[in-house]
Amino acid sequence: MEEGPVTVIGGAGRIGRRIVSRLRERGVPVRVTTRDVRRSRSAVPGDVPLAHADVREPASLAPPLRGCAAVVFSVEPGTAGSGPDRPETTMFQGVRHVLDAVGPAAHVVLVSQIYVTRADHPQNRYGRMLDWRLAGEELIRARGGPYTIVRPSWLTDSRGAGEAVRLEQGDTGDGRICRDDVADACVRALSTPAAIGTTFEMYNVAGPSATDWDTLFARLRPDGAVAGRRPRINGTEVPDVGAHTPR
After folding, report:
1. In the chain, how many domains are there?
2. What is the mean pLDDT of the chain?
3. In a domain, 101, yes or no
4. What is the tens place of the pLDDT at every residue in 38-49?
5. Exposure of 114 in the CB half-sphere (CA atoms within 13 A)
6. pLDDT for residue 105
7. 102: in domain
8. pTM (2 decimals)?
9. How far is residue 217's CA from residue 228's CA, in Å, rounded to a whole number?
10. Over 50: is that where the pLDDT of 242 sits?
């Protein structure tokens, strides 16, 4: 990762605040953006800069993203089929707006989810959420800069006794993952070259509780070596995901 602060978009959320905590523990300068500064202040340490920004509003992103070495995008989409909170506005248009605002060398870490390549999964009934998440992933891959795409399984607040972390690729599995492990993966990816240019799913499975992130990341295949479907909305391939041109 280049020298400079890390901006956590959605850093007051349940995963985001864990990411912020781990970055601070490692001595990494961190900024947080949120849609509602007043409501989020209690969830963010007082010494962490907190700025209003909405990924749906491009002009709001420039100040908090200026000069950052990395961005972690940890935003929960709405589920409506129409209106300003539909998944398209955050997970596709919002990702595009962030890529427009961030520097070309910044490492972008996207928190996505499993199932995004499974268009017939029930979650896709909610505003085509899976399709738009996948389309946002494609924008990041097409950007040309460093990135890591993290696909958590069903989220929990704690890991069970005697459980380990497993990373998979190809989006064929199912299961659950602790939010702490997702936060660890996002932060470790920023300092692990083997994580750059990869997409992976995360699960908790039976095994030793200690996590060797270097080994887990070293086993990953770079994107392009992993098969997956192209995003389609209402039967039509999402336009313009193959070429992101910063404005």
Report:
1. 1
2. 91
3. yes
4. 999 999 999 999
5. 19
6. 94
7. yes
8. 0.91
9. 20
10. no
Residue 14 forms part of a structural domain: yes
CB proximity list for 50: less than 8 A, separation 6 or greater? 11, 12, 31, 32, 33, 34, 37, 40, 41, 44
Nearest by Cα to 153 from 100, 200, 108: 200
Distances from the Cα of 177 to the Cα of 182, 186, 207, angstroms: 7, 13, 14
Do the beta carbons of residue 8 and residue 65 sit within 8 Å? no
Sign of CA dihedral 241, 101, 199, 112: negative
> What CATH number corresponds to the domain at position 29?
3.40.50.720
CA–CA dist 137, 16 (Å, integer): 18
DSSP 208: -
With a pLDDT cut of 70, the percent of the chain lying above it is 90
pLDDT at 245 over 90: no
Show the domain range for 163: 6-237
Q: For the residues 152-180, what does the mean pLDDT come to?
A: 96
